[in-house]
Amino acid sequence: MADANESTLLEARGLGRTFGKGDGSVTALDDVTFSVAEGETVVLVGESGSGKTTAARVVLGLETPDRGSVRISGRETSGLSERDWRQVRRNIQVVLQDPMSQLNRRHTVEKIVSSPLRAYRIGDKASQRLRVIELLEAVGLEADHLDRVPHEMSGGQCQRVAIARALAVKPKLVVLDESVSALDVSVRAQVLNLLRDLQARLNLSYLLITHDLAVARYMGHRTYVMFNGRIVESGATEAVLADPQHPYTVSLLDSTPSGRLGMDQQHLGEAPIRALPSPEPGDQCRFLARCDSSQSRELCRDNRPELRVVGLDHWTACHFPRGIDPSRQMYGRTNDDSVDPQEDMS
Amino acid sequence: MGHNMARTSAAETGREATPARRVNIGMVVLAVTALTCLLGPFLWHFEATQIGAGLPFLGPGFEHPFGTDDLGRDQLARLMVGGRITVIVAAGSALLSILIGVTWGVLAAARRGWMDEVLMRTADAFMAIPQIVFALVFVAAFGSSILSLTIIIGVLLAPTTARIVRSVAMSELSSDYAVAARACGLGRTRVMATEILPNVLPTIMVQATINVAAAIILEATLSFIGLGIQPPDASWGTLLLQGYGKFYNSAWLVLVPTVWIVVTIWALTATSESLRSRARREAAA
Amino acid sequence: MSNSVPEPVLSVRDLQVSVPSGKGETLAVRGVDFDLQPGARLGLVGESGSGKSLTALALMRMLPPSLRIRAGQVLLDGRDLLTLSPREMCDVRGREIAMIYQNPMAALNPVLTIGAQLVEGLRIHSSVSRSTARRRAVELLGDVGIPDPGRRLDSYPYELSGGMRQRVVIAMALSCEPSVIIADEPTTALDVTTQARVLALLRQLVSSHGTAVILISHDLEVAAEFCENVQVMYAGKLVERSPSAELFAYPLHPYTKALLESSCVLTTDLTRPIPVIPGQPPQPGRFPVGCAFQPRCGQAGEICTDHDPVLEQMHERSVACHFPHPGASTVAGSGLEGGSFDG
After folding, report:
1. Domain count of the fold of chain B
2. Range of the domain at B173
3. N or C of chain A: less Cβ packing under 10 Å?
């Protein structure tokens, strides 16, 4: 995990959140720690029940954790008053999943995008309008969209408006909560390109929540894989996706057709037909019931695994990780932006 | 034209086949009734209080389209003047009920927790008391002038309105755009005022028309049992009461106000239906 | 694959569906033709506005009230479903042609136990006794991989996870042994890990029952892996139909090729922006004249604005384009040749 320093925008430590009490209680978050530095994209990957959405809500101040702390630009956010939260929120904005329902159906685009400006009383009406036009252009929309209403626009256009709104007050970090999941394939590509472009131009950071590994790989510099409220694997995206150590990460990759294509032969084969059992409660590895690794189980039953280092910028919470294999470079990512000669991927 | 995967069918379905007409027949009837009652007395050549305008207990005819009562007063004139009072009381109390109810409901929705509990249990308490009993007490205390009747009916209708407004406001508060607004830095009050209320407005309008209908019935009931408008003023309810006593002499004295009340309630219901479907379409778009 | 061509179990000819629009009605499905062989798996892929879901609903004659089938034939085992009376269609639905929906929670009645729903389906379409139906229901639940099926029969939908609910829906669809199943985005609402398992299950079941499947999806990869043949729909028409591996490796239609290239998958090139198709998919009522893809197409010619190309057969593939693309896709190797499916 990156050490906290001046360029750490977001730091979440030991987050815990349980809903309900007693038998029916659901632990959404259990000792979740992650951080986002300036200019980078951090991805929280997981399925439903993994806690990734709750983590995002905690970070945004929409949910109060039972345990743990969140620091935004060095400032502790637990116990902040509403007024102080408003100050913090200038630096951390959000784009949600559903393109249309996150925009007020009765407002025009101009009203929607300028609403943060009005909330923070930035500029007067005229300068706000100019800023809105500037933002619309930055996200690839024309000024004649100003008077449109959400249901007159397509999903892709609505999502761009949401992005424009998020950028209005010049935040440093934008939380993207499944922001491309509801878009058509061809539109998704446009929005992903836009997000990357904006990141480069404005030195933005993103906290991306997604269940889609391909999007995680494309956008993320670092990835945290979550299962049932815990982080089971984390590290540099290329490390985590090229050489997954935790059986859950392996199963995630295995479930994507293009993941199957690239996977080692030993993980191919018929996906078992039976339904997956629910995760176990108690003080054992949460993944135990689903784990089809052939390793010894006693350690897993008595001891909840903690995150430990398995490679360069690569951690996993498993007593029996797969083992690093340097030859697995299937999904390598080059960090510099210059165009490399096409690698032979086959 | 949503592109949400889960709503693909809706997107491909497109708009509704027949956009509901802006103005439906209910609204027309309402407008006609209101206008007649408000302006009619100036144009009609009989006075409502004119005793002996015609022979008593006349049926509908050319001279007196709705007949006359036991004192020979023209029924059409009485109906129009009575309608005035009914309209004033109904509209006034509906307005009051909206004002009280919306504030009540919005406060409860915005400030969850104990305030919500207190407000809603108060509403429950109000609704638990039979309306007539409530009215009785109030009339005994404050008399039955037009003003006090308007106030009491307005207060009686407020709790239901509050409940409905609260539930809509709460559901809007949990919708994506409200969450996004909060996360983007808008304060709670601003969110309620600029984001939520415009989306609650259609519901409020529907409820207002329903409340007018309820007010008419309440007023008519109260007047019918003698707690409402007192003579010499007349509302449709008092006309009913007076006609009821003379039923065997002329059934028209009861039928005519009854039909008018029914027609007006129907017109209000039709209006509220069209407002409701318009609201639903706007919400789904 | 056998050499002789057997009779298709489902034959669709010139299917047209209209939707209401500002000025009356407009066609959202503009003439769809295809055959479905017994036991085959056919994919129908498209983005929003393509008409794929409407096609599925039209086949089942379950369109919402304001939509209408304007023309076409749907021959199921030789019988035209579009000419049947509503009552006759009710008989056919569920028994000969069944549907699996996108949202399992919406497909199941929340106030009835799953046993009750399964039994209901069984008893409507065949005259079995209650106990026989119950036994069969337990068998079915076991077939779809639900643990402890005997007890689960008395569970309510809310007690099951999303994946299990979808398995129940599959069990219901299979219960009367239909010859055709239409699966409309059956795994979209499910978790990724559950998706793979549910699809594998469906695959195994349809091959053991000999059921033909039409899989509707927005996800090309999923369709290509599950189906033997895939058809691509755009703006209400079929633009390409190919065996899966070839669709991926050598897409003929510029839209298919562009769609593959703009898909963000695990093998997408990270060093440059994802190639995009400019603009967005057109909606019914706004389909361009001539070839609907022409405004966004990189290789459109003059003829494309004047003449809407017709679906033409080239060996086992069909494409509707004036300039079909014969070369290899630039999408990094599909790896699907000789891969995970048979035939």
Report:
1. 1
2. 24-39+67-284
3. C
For B11, the closest chain A residue by CA position comes to A154
CATH label of the domain that carries residue B116: 1.10.3720.10
CB pairs under 8 A between A and B: 93
Is B50 within the bounds of a domain? no
Question: CA B279 to CA B276: how far, in whole Å?
Answer: 5
What span, in angstroms and rounded, lies between the C-alpha atoms of C178 and A144?
52
CB-nearest partner of C284 from B5, B9, B12: B12
Count of H-run helices and E-run strands, chain C: 12, 12
The pLDDT tens digits along chain A (346 residues) read 444 556 789 999 999 998 888 777 788 899 999 999 999 999 999 988 888 999 999 999 998 999 999 999 989 998 888 889 999 999 999 999 999 999 999 999 999 999 999 999 999 999 999 999 999 999 999 888 999 999 889 889 999 999 999 999 999 999 999 999 889 888 999 999 999 999 999 999 999 999 999 999 999 999 999 998 999 999 999 889 888 888 889 888 888 776 554 444 333 334 455 556 656 556 677 777 777 766 657 777 777 788 888 787 888 888 778 777 766 655 443 333 333 333 333 3
Kindly state whether residue B2 falls inside one of the protein's structural domains: no
Q: Would the pTM of this model clear 0.90, i.e. be above it?
A: no
Distance from CA of C218 to the nearest CA of A (A): 8
CB A43 within 8 A of CB A192: no
Print the SS3 string covering C5-49. Answer: CCCCCEEEEEEEEEEEECCEEEEEEEEEEEEECCCCEEEEECCCC
Cis peptide, bond prior to residue C251, ω within 30 of zero: no
Residues of chain C with a CB closer than 8 angstroms to some CB in chain B = 19-22, 26, 28, 48-49, 51-54, 57, 64, 66-67, 102-103, 185, 188-189, 218, 283-285
CB contact under 8 A, B4 and A100: yes
Query: What does the alpha-carbon distance between residue B186 and residue B192 come to, in Å, rounded to a whole number?
Result: 10
B189: nearest CA partner in chain A:
A119
Q: Is residue B53 part of a domain?
A: no
